[in-house]
Structure formats: structure tokens, C-alpha cells
Here is the input.
Amino acid sequence: MFTGIIETLGTIAALEPRGGDMRLKVRAPEMDLGDTRLGESIAVNGVCLTVTELNGGQFGADVSRESLSVTTLGDLGVGDRVNLEQALTLNTRLGGHLVSGHVDGVGEVLAMQPDARSTRVQFRAPDALARYIAAKGSITIDGTSLTVNGVDGATFDVNIIPHTWDMTRFSVYRIGSRVNLEVDLVARYLERLVLGERAAQPGQSGGLSEDWLAEQGFPNHTGPRD
Here is the structure.
């Protein structure tokens, strides 16, 4: 588990193809790896990876074919900067929100514009994730815990203060940049709880639907209101 508070930016030192997947090596001179052990977890751009190699201020991790297919790690090149966070401990301050490091989908940067000293950034999420994204709710973008300012369908925006801009990958984003998204854990579990016994039936991986909610007596707010 992680908090979504980025510790530092690392740099991709090497990308080594290995039998269909990849060994990723990251230089992290500003991260304290003194008590890190092989087998522990570090989130790289929001993806929980297992440390398989340690060499001073550098670590290596294997990235499976599955992770390459559902995240942006396969887009990285040598020299690219990445967000890094070590796994939380029982005495870690939970300054962001609970983050699993399991990416739900890849989003895209749609717009970036100044907002006083901050920057407002708009993203498009995969349609399947739209139901988990709510205004003033939490979202993880490349491992960074953020608050959703506004949401419209599958698009949403966040406000990036100068400190976050300087300490994370936001400064390298451009229109069209692809980012790793992880929705709020509570939203995912709440959906399954609301399904009740129906969650055990085959074909329920898609979660709630408007028709099912109507059958259960939930009001439909998509049409005209009184």
C-alpha cells in the first residue's frame, strides 16, 4: 500500500527486454534505500513493483507482460523521469489517500491552463472508470494522490499547486500524454457491497447499471427533475 505522496523523482537508467517482459532500472539518488530489501515494493509512476536488484542509489524491478499492457511503463525511455514512492509503514503519515499501486486504466491529458499560481489539468479517463470518479473525490495519477475538481462524463480536472508541479512528473506532461490512473479504493468496494448477493453471480464484473439501480428503487437523476 502507498499514500500517493511522491517521495522523489527518479530517472530510468535501463530498460532490458527479458523473454517478453522487461527489467526496469531506476536511478533514485535522493531516495533513502538504506533499509530497503529485495522483495519490497516501490511504486513507479503509480505501479507497484517488486524490488529485485539494489545497487547503491539504484534499484531494479521486473515488469510483467500484463503490467506493460495495462500501464504506461512500456512508453518509458532511458532518461525519462518517474514518480517514486516506497510502500507505507505503520508509522507513515497518510497525507494522501490509500493507494494500492494497481493501475485501473490509462488516461490522457486533454488540456493544461494556468489557474493563478497553479495549473488546471484536464484528463480523459477510460469510460469504464468514469463511474468511480466524483467531484472532490480522490484519484491517483501516475502515483500522485489528487483531489478531483470537476467531472463531466469521462473527463475530469485537477488543480496542481507549484510544489506538486515541481516534485512530480506533471512538469513533463503535454497534451496527449498518457498517464496511469487508479480510482479510489473505497468507491470500488462500495460498488461491490451495493451489489450484495448479486456480486456472486457470473457476469457481474461490470458492476452497477442504471437499470439495476432502478429495479432496487434508487431514483433516476439522469432525466428531468421537478
